[in-house]
Structure formats: structure tokens, C-alpha cells
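Help wanted!
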Amino acid sequence: MGTPPYRIWEILNRSEAGKFMEEKEFVRKRLIPELRRVVKKYNIKYDPAYPVNVDDSVADSVWNAAVEAFLSIGVYNKSNHRVIEFTEEDIKEAFLSLPGEYMFGAGKDARPFIARKVEDPRPPFMLFSPDITYDERDHFMVCVAFLKEPLLDGLCAPILEHFFGTKINSHSPSELGGSLMHAMNLLEAARLVGRPGIHLVAVGTAEADSSQIHVSSNEYGIRTTDSRLVASTTELETNNELLNKGLHYHQFGCYSGNLAGAIYGGYAGGAEGTAVLQTAYHIMGNLLYSSHYEQNFPFHLKYGSNTGRELLWVVSVYCQAIARNTKMPQTSNGFANAGPGTEMLYYETAAHSIASTVSGANLWEMAPARNKYPNRGTPLECKLAAEVGYGTVLSSLTRRDANSIVDKLLKQYEKDIPEAPIGKTFREMYEVEKAVPKKEALEQYKDVVKELKDLGVPFPY
Amino acid sequence: MSLTNDLNSAVKEGNIDESANLVEKILAQGTSASEVLDVLTGAIREVGDAFERFDIFLPEMMMAADAMIEVMKVLDPALKEEGKGTIESSAKILMASVKGDIHEIGKNIVITMLTANGYAIFDMGADVDSLEIVKIAEREKANVIGLSALMTTTMPGQKEVIDILNDMGLRDRFKVIIGGSPTSQEWAREIGADGWAKDASEAVKVVEKLIRES
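Answered by r_m:
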């Protein structure tokens, strides 16, 4: 079951006929002051003692503030300098029309994808995603390595850095070709590991709308049982190319998610404004793109990560705000500071997984090394996130329990965030030809799991 | 508290009217424009440092930069009368997110920091054609071209601008600085850029160095 597109042509018409405004005015006279105003009005306060929020009233205040801010700010279309505005009735109707669950993937590989609740006993959907580019020579085997992981419910694939030896250039033939290669590698890898119907989110190699449209195919590309992402630009802005993508996904018939990352320290200010803005993005995704789910990655302006204390609070609060007030399925996308093969990455991953799972999110893990260095991402950190996600629900962890554990984890790594190690590459961690971790990588994994268990991190076994 | 202390506080708080009034009052007392400029530069440096520590966030820095811009309009005539100018005031920086890249916040933070430090900026926005960047840089007589790329797939746009500068025989006319999350010093070297900065505060230092060298 999919979400019906919300009055799609009426909304797109608003993007043409909205109020004219220069972008500078939108940012300075709407975005910044409105976010500040609602944070003050609803008395939203970040408390560093609670990296996992335990107060329902804070989550509800953030939801109410987000609704009010979104209605007064709107969304800016950079292509024509028009502001797309919405009404309270739009929000009520669009959110009422959400089914709250979908079946992602096809055949025996299909998995339910649901709008989870706070402290929900149902496990999160485990979307594995390294979120980084890989060398062309390794891309296929990286896809295989991820798809071999048993706890994976879906894969947002590694991104291609090169196409036939040429560095992929956005909006050029190399991007069009690379996007198709990306899709073909994924499909072939999925079939070879015996999961032909697994849910894929692709293709991250395609920046251009034309490249996304190019790979839409139930025969050789991204299928209607898969999903695609449509982003916004900083903050609460879109353009015609993004609107084209959103429209195409609906007309092609696949699932789509709104990719949104409010920036902590940016226009939203501190943790409070960032939480409100990230919550508002759910409303934008539902109304503007009719997205089936929200793909969230709020991040720190300076570090590009979301595993620090302030950002984990942001994650827990917006997840709870959405889970308590809507039926919109959401994923929580981890961005760690440290790279593969470091203990710090596993600690960060555990903290992000617990905070997200207990707060009602599905998991989208894990982008290591600040999502900055090619080839630095492996299935091992995603496996750990999934195990901790299962452990969190199987042990009926409450938010208070989660807060205590996350606080302990943070104390182990937060001082190291500014100078986090970038870790190792996929080739250094894996036997590439077999697509399995090297012995020393597995041994380290086992040692870290033991340490994490000693700190109270729940595992399913 | 002295008027200069008041001015320092007013700029840091982004209070435009108060800052402008204070500059007029201080000048009327006979303080030289270059001394006032020192006060302003100190205030904006404190703002930059506070942002670097995340004691304040982008909106506060933008407000302080806006105050600085307005105050400089009041101060400029007095500076000219004194025959004073800064290296910064004679330099123009053209900024753009390269072709295919719709991300702007990193570039905009750099612009805020450079503006606050007295540089004249020509902002071409995002997703800008490479040849257009070169043509506008020529037209605007820019000293430095700043190129931002947030995606690995848009990094080639930075190289394309430098290639065009070389092909048109204009490479020596401009210093080129690049930045953006996936970029690096190695990439800057590989494509022949003059400088790379990992963040906005470093960008100000690199631009200052490039201008002094040019």
C-alpha cells in the first residue's frame, strides 16, 4: 500500500504561483526569525543530561512548534524565487491519508516498513547504508558484502566514484552511465546472494533528475518495489529539478523518501531549533513531495556527524515528536565521526542505534568518517547497529534506560569527536574477492561487542 | 563603559542602528577612522572565534556581519579622508557553488566570514556554469575565485573552471581557492588550485595569504 500523492498538481501549481521573494529575505525574514520565535514560544530547551529525551511534553512541543513554523515559513523554490505555502487543513488531510505501513521489496524478500511508536516492541526496519563513494573496481563486491548481511532488510547502495575510469561529473554522460552501472551492480549482486527482491534505495550516484529517470525500470534498473530519495536544500528550500524527481517517482510508481538533514549550528541555531526544523521537514516531505517516508540525517555544521550529545538529543526528540503525533514512517540515518575499524565508530553506532530505536525510528546506518572519505565504510558497523536495534526492542528498553546507556557511551568517545580517527578502507577491512571481513576485523568486532555489553548495551544474543 | 566598548558589543550583538550611531559619535569625538576600524575588526574577530567554538551559531554571526557591513558604509568616507585603506577593501572575491551543485550553506558561511573581514564579495550562487564563472570574474575584476563543491560528482566542476582559465590564458589573472566537504588539499593540488580551506575561518586566512602574495 502506498501513500496517495497529496493533491500533487495543486501543490506543484503553488510552486509556480507563490509569493515572489528573494532568497536572502526568505532566510532572514522568515526562516531564522520564525524558528527562533517558536522555540521561545514553546519553551523548548535542550538538556545535556538527557541525550535521549524522556519527556513526552518536550516531543509534543517540538511537533507543535514545527507545525506552526512550517505554516509561517513555507518552502522556497529557488528556480523561480517563489514561496510555496501550505494550510493547516493541508497538514491534517495529508497526514490522515498516510497508511502508516508499506511492504518494501518483492516476493520472499519483501519486508514490512512501518511507522514505529516510542518504545515500540516491533523491531526497526534495518536499512544498511555506507553513504559513501567507492572505487569502481570494488563497487560490485561492496554491494555483495552488504547484501550478504542477514539482518539487512534493505540497502541504500554504495555510490560510484568513477565510471569506466572517468571521475563521474554531475549532470554529464558519465553520471548517466555511472547511475546505470550503479543500478546494474546492485541488481546483479542481489540476485547472486539469493535476494533478488530485496528493497533497494538507489541510485545515489544520480544527482540529476535525468539520471534518476534514466534508471527507472522494472527490467534492468530501479524497480517499483524499491525506493528513491528526493532532497531539499538548506533550509526548507527546493528547486524544479527536485520537484521533477518527486513527481517522476510517483508517476513511475516506486516508493520515495524525503532526504532531509537540518544543520545544527546553521540557520536553525542550536539543538532546539534543529529539532524543530528536522520535524518540520517531515511535513514538507509529506506535503510537497508526497514522500512515503522521511529519511533524516540532522548533522553538526562543523563535524558533519550526528553522534555527539546535542545531536543525539535532536535525533531522539524529532523521532519522538513524529512517532507520537503522526503515522509517518521515519528512518534515522547515522553519521559517525570515526572511520571503519575503530572502536570509536562502534561506540558511536551503538549510541545512535539505541537513541533512534527507542524513540520510534527505523534504522538507516551507518555513514562513517563524517561521510567524507571514499571507500571508508563496511557492513560491520551496519551489522552492529542492527544487532543493537534488535537488542533494544527485545530487552524492552525504556527511554530512561536508553538515556543511561547512551550517556555512558558518550562519555567514552565525545571528547575525541574533534580529532576522530578516519579508520580503514573497505579493502583494509575485508577480503574483497570473498566479500567477507578479515579475521582481525571480526576479532575486533567481537571484542568491542563484549565491551559494549559490559556498558549495558543490549544485544539479541 | 567607553563608547568603543559599546561599539564592540553592538557589532557583536548585530545591532545595526546602535553600531552606526556609535561610529558617528566616536568619529565626532575626534577618534581617527583607522582606530575605529581596529575596534570593529577586533569585534568581528571575536565573533568569528565564538562561532569557531560554537558559543554562537550562524544566525548570530550573520547579524554581526550585517552590522559590520552597515557600519563600514558610515566609516568608509572617513577612512578615505584619512587616506587609509585596507588590503581587504581593495580585494574582490567571486564566490560560486560549481556546476551541478545546489548546496550553498558552506559557501554562504565563507561569504559571511569574508564580508565581516572587509572583503568585497560577488556571489554567483549555486549550480553555476564554469565559463560563466570565468567571464564574470573578468567583468568584476575579481582577485580571487572561490569554488565550492559538496558532492564528489560536482568536484570536477572545480577542475573545469581552472581548465577554462588555463585554456583562455587567464590563469595568472586570478587566485583560485576551493572548498567543500569531499575536497582536500590533495585535490586542490591535483587540479592546480592556489588554495584549499577546510572551513570558513581557514578560508579567510587562505584568502588573506593569497591576496598578499598576488
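OP: Thanks! One thing I noticed: The mean pLDDT of chain B is 91.
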